[in-house]
């Protein structure tokens, strides 16, 4: 197995790992207000998130940025809670031409999530001569993993909307409230306190 494929698979597995479900919760919170026909907006959201966390992941992996690990582990569920709360307060994406708040959340909060991955990736890389290829492969793997999560979530939502008849707004509110509750519990469980 080549180096690119190895780190690509590690990126996918890292996202799909149910033991570290904070990333899954954030992606679900980002997408909770959308339906399948909004797939282009969703791909932009997921990619904005990847860009954000790729930047800080690279900077932290190269030891150019250092942040208190306990603080980052606390801030990650805070980003999830803010995104979910935003959905509860304003459960429909704006139809105006301005940038939607979820795009800003995706990019900015991605910076924080990238810091959370840095220790994991730094330990994987060890003493690699060049980290560019592994970092690129890992981030592409993260993106693919996120798209898998989004696809599963959006198809499940589409089935519930279309077949069972659950109202789009109710679906968004229920999912966002569940994610909000879980993120609050995650905040309380961090070592930051």
Describe this structure in words.
This protein is an all-alpha fold. It has one domain (19-189). The protein is built from 7 helices and no strands. Helix 2 crosses helix 6 (132-164), helix 3 (39-61) crosses helix 5 and helix 4 packs antiparallel against helix 7 (168-189). The longest helix is centred in the last third of the chain and has 33 residues, at 132-164. This is HupE / UreJ protein.
- Measured as a percent range, the helix fraction is over 70%
> What general outline do the C-alpha atoms trace?
globular
Average residue pLDDT: 88
**Whole-angstrom Rg:** 17 Å
Keywords: Membrane, Transmembrane, Transmembrane helix
Organism: Cecembia lonarensis (strain CCUG 58316 / KCTC 22772 / LW9)
Protein name: HupE / UreJ protein
Pfam family, one: HupE_UreJ_2
Key attributes of the depicted protein:
193 residues, mainly alpha, 77% helix, globular
Helices and strands in order:
Layout: H1 3-16, H2 22-31, H3 39-61, H4 69-89, H5 101-125, H6 132-164, H7 168-189
Helix pairs in contact: 1-6, 2-4, 2-6, 2-7, 3-5, 3-6, 4-5, 4-7
InterPro entries: Put_HupE_UreJ
Transmembrane segments: 20-36, 43-65, 71-89, 101-120, 140-164, 171-188
Keywords: Membrane, Transmembrane, Transmembrane helix
Provide a quick synopsis of the model.
The chain has helices spanning 3-16, 22-31, 39-61, 69-89, 101-125, 132-164, 168-189.
